[in-house]
Amino acid sequence: MNYRYPPRYGPEWGSGGIYGLRFHNGTLYFTLAFEGEAHFITEDSHKIYEFELVGPRPTSGGDTYNAVEVVDEYIYFGGWVHAPAKYRGKGEGKATIDFSNKYSHVHEYDTENQEVRLVWKESIHHPSEWAGEVSDIIYNPYTDELLLAREDGHTNLGVYSLSRNGRIRLLNDKPSAKGCQMHDLAFFGIGKNYRKGLEEIHALDMITERWEVFPLGESLDGGKYIQPHLGGNGVSVNNRVFAFVRGGVFVGNPHNDEQFAFVRLFDFYTFYAPFRVNALPIGGGILVGFNAHHDAYYRPRTQEEMIYHRFTNTIPGPSVLVYFAPPMVKIVGVFGARITSIEKVDGKILVATNTTPNVGALDATPFDTGNKDIFVLPEKILQEKPPAVSFSVPLAFPSEGKRMGAGVFGGIPLDGYDNARLIIKASRDNRLKVYEYDLALPLRDADVEEFDIKKGRNVIDLRTFSGIVSFELESEDFSGVARIELW
Question: CA 110 to CA 105: how far, in whole Å?
Fold first, then answer.
């Protein structure tokens, strides 16, 4: 198989990536987006499907959320596709896509016969709006149906049930990007991802099809969380749901008297997030990526876009691959702009990466602009010492017309490191709180220790702390920078 995919034809914004990595019944599947190619690889074959069952070529898109599920000998893959793609060129400095031929879709791949079947497609045939993309697929063994999460779009959002012969039913009309199964329930994150992010969690009883609604609780460090955009798939471990969002993870099981609490992780005043990447159950734990540059404004044209441009293009650190084995949280890999998909194959971990984010507004191109590759790691990285890593974080940030500062930031896992320190370059005297917590279940509130910060360079030795640490300044410092070093 190829391990590197340079920029090629695929009209969209910025770059898509390698999505939906899944090894099943001797076949490795993934979708190459925005090129609109589904790949199926075995020991002696490599089949490429270009979504021609959806509509005429040239096609583009495919999947950008890792919507894939396996049932029996079948691989079910979903997402969205332009068929055919219609690029609107750079007239007066504006370039965009006509969405008239944009379809949401679910396909079935028979690994025994190496055949693709279109199960379902849907389009509203509008030039600037589209029907909700399929961003997650969960199999319901009781009804033998596929549960579809749909949030990215303008109409037909929510949770749907799709039979394997193509009959679709609406179960919940609230927009949902991701979900997971726990016991006989399917939990779904509810909210518009590019606005407020996750707002509440709904649970579907997969037998009775009744819903329950659960609110989001407080953070372990007592600080607020902002814009908790729902990222990778939710995963169930230790009879709890883990919902990965910008700034950390919500963990809980209300049926076990544990409301959804927020565990702060890699929370900076930027769009650093576990976004557009799946969470992989492995070794009884969870492997997930936190991405430095997954979605961004490329060329701001208004003052509001300038704020979001800075928010989405500030890179505080590399993308990291993180292993959750409660109470431990451990960094196991360091990568560039973003990780798009993760899978386990024959004692190896496949990590799909990309150099370029999705972009938006009026900066579409007729080709994908990123360099994508598949990075192969041994499974033993989960048991080895973590790699050295550092983060350089602005201590405050202008966002959405207001200033964010003097809030809690960080959430840095120290497990496995011999040395760790925080360097604060302050423009004023201040006071710092360091919160210490871990992922022991049930979750416990953080402990806190305070330090005086003087104008200039301050070094805090973090070797006296364990688990996870987050930080809070008493007063905002819009010229200050924090550098966190782990080795």
Answer: 17
